[in-house]
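Reminder to self: tokens first, then the designed residues, so the page reads top to bottom the way the pipeline ran.
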């Protein structure tokens, strides 16, 4: 009779794969090295994801759960720097429109990627340029950018992060850099990167990019296959 539950032996294989691939993660912490506590959290997230997925949808669910656990381990590092002062931004705005707007505005917003593809395990830098001007009735208190990464064919974000660009209130131009390192075991495919700019908590602009994640480490696949066969 066919069993409708996930066999312990198969679950063990998936757990082994998930735990082994954790060793290939390059971004579980913001520093250069992972502490024992960091590793424990990453391994725990993978194990919990694998087990939960197995309970819901057998072996297929276990693999999906393991991927979710691995996703929880890596982070998106974000940095921001001011590129133009409030005086410069407001002077340019007045030269074009004679006076500042009634409400705060995003004058310019653009995101860019270094190319159309990235290898798994290598860093991807997403650079955004934001220029925002205070309004006559609504000065800028905060400029913040949010980033969301979607797996191929998915409608819910796989990973999210945000960065406050403004160091102080008022107009200004900023450059945000989000550095993402896809784990070495992430599926290949075309990932969607969506971004939003919030001024005083209100979304005023958005961006959209896509990146092809590729893989060229066949030796890792052989190692994972050997683990699964044990």
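Designed residues (230 positions):
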């Amino acid at each position: 009779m066919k069993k409708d539950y996930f066999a312990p032996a198969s679950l063990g294989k998936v757990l082994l794969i998930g735990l082994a691939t954790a060793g290939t993660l390059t971004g579980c912490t913001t520093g250069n090295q992972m502490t024992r506590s960091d590793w424990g959290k990453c391994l725990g997230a993978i194990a919990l994801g694998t087990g939960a997925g197995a309970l819901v949808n057998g072996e297929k669910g276990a693999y999906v759960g393991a991927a979710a656990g691995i996703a929880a381990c890596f982070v998106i590092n974000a940095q921001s720097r001011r590129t133009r002062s409030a005086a410069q931004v407001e002077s340019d705005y007045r030269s074009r429109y004679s006076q500042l707007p009634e409400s705060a505005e995003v004058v310019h917003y653009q995101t860019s990627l270094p190319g159309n593809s990235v290898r798994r395990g290598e860093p991807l830098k997403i650079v955004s340029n934001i220029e925002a001007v205070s309004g006559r009735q609504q000065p800028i208190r905060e400029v913040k950018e949010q980033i969301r990464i979607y797996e191929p064919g998915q409608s819910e974000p796989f990973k999210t992060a945000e960065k406050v660009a403004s160091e102080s209130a008022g107009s200004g131009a900023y450059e945000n850099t989000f550095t993402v390192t896809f784990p070495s075991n992430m599926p290949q495919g075309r990932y969607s990167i969506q971004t939003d700019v919030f001024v005083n908590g209100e979304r005023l602009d958005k961006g959209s990019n896509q990146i092809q994640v590729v893989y060229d480490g066949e030796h890792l696949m052989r190692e994972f296959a050997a683990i699964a066969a044990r």
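The chain has two domains: 8-73, 76-214.
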